[in-house]
Amino acid sequence: MEIRPTTDKDLDVFVDTVHAAFGHFPETPVEGGGLWWSALETDRCLLALTADGRPVGTAATHSFELTLPGETLVPAPGVTAVGVLPSHRRQGVLTAMMRYQLAELRARGELLSVLLASEASIYGRFGYGPATYTAQLKVPRHEAALAAPRARELADGPTPGSGDGSRHGPASGSANGSVEVLRRSECGGILEEVYDRYRRAQPGALSRPHRWWALRAGQPPISREPRYIAVHRDADGLPDGYASYSIESGTLTVDETIATDDAVFTALARFALAHDLVSQVVFKHLQPEHPLRRQLADFRVGQVSGDMDWLWVRLLDVPRALTARGWFTDGELVLDVHDPFLGERDRYLLTVRNGKADCAPTDRKPDLSLDIRDLGSVYLGGTAPSTLVRAGHILAHHPDAATLADTLFRAERSPHCLHWF
């Protein structure tokens, strides 16, 4: 078997092979893109070929940036289009491609890679661990009242009419802003600009390169599927958030809500929840612990479902990855890291001072022993090390080790990724 990078001449073969691996047929291309694979970078795609030259497997990476805790941006190859023809599964093709790809990424100097897992049981053995999570919230329209924010009363004292469960603030927009409804085709560069501002401050978020927007390659609101866009503008009229939505059979579904702060998100949520002629509102891709459910006057009416992993992280250079992110508590931790797929085991002293980390090889006794996949899970702060200790995946060598690791690895806020690739 041969594994090699593709060229522009191989694009049709690559697309046909990955579709066949999943039992699908490629859609008919449209002028200017509009299909998920139109954003592929052919020099970052791989083909697995039999001895007689028949393509049987594919894998690729996109060029992204990942926002780390502390608002640090690092290159993050996004692994995608991984597939093996049904006739050649369980013959080592996938393992060979993953080994080739990881070696190639290391040779390029990448410190980590990321992916979205089609099946959760596949990628752990290659060193990837789930690092961000997503859920959806369903709210009956007739029970969608938002409670008065109690912190305001604590600061200013009771206000007339407070505490009665009624809506507060304007029907749309925040107190100093407004909401405008546009068709997707009318938005110009608004979505791209707002998303870019958002992702630079959100741990776990990925960039969306301009070519994705230009080619309309992806899911709504990037794709060509028709959507309405509720654009939030601040007091000066500048866009600072949006919600992409559609209505079908009485359900208003919000594909994506992007907001530069919590007040903007609340304004967009209030807009959706106040929409006439719908029976329920579904917010997709929320953080599992998003405060919106707590804002409802009746906590029970918000139904959470689809709680699942989203972005998976694989560290390729442990010292560089750990020193790249921001840290919020001083301390020291000795990590014994096992990478079974690459046959590596190393011990590192992680020292954090004033928000910066140093990570160096050490012979000191470990505080924690962990698989590289579990280090990927805790890296962004979305999975507590103590949770994986309790699950039996991380070994804590003394009673305080898990608590110390929880304190060190926490992020300034929960990591979240919305981008689909």
TrEMBL record:
Keyword field contains Transferase: yes
Domain of life: Bacteria
Region (Disordered): 149-179
Active site: Y123 (proton donor), F421 (proton acceptor)
Record InterPro entries: Acetyltransf_17 (IPR041380), Acetyltransferase_Eis (IPR051554), Acyl_CoA_acyltransferase (IPR016181), Eis_dom (IPR025559), GNAT_dom (IPR000182), NAcTrfase_Eis (IPR022902), SCP2_sterol-bd_dom_sf (IPR036527)
Occurrences of domain N-acetyltransferase (ranges): 1-152
Residues given in the record as acetyl-CoA binding sites: V82, G83, V84, R90, Q91, G92, V93, L94, T95, S118, E119
CDD domains: NAT_SF
Keywords on record: Acyltransferase, Transferase
Assembly with partners or alone: Homohexamer; trimer of dimers.
Entries under PANTHER family matching the protein: N-ACETYLTRANSFERASE EIS (PTHR37817:SF1)
Protein family (similarity comment): Belongs to the acetyltransferase Eis family.
UniProt-recorded name of the protein: GNAT family N-acetyltransferase
Organism name: Streptomyces tibetensis
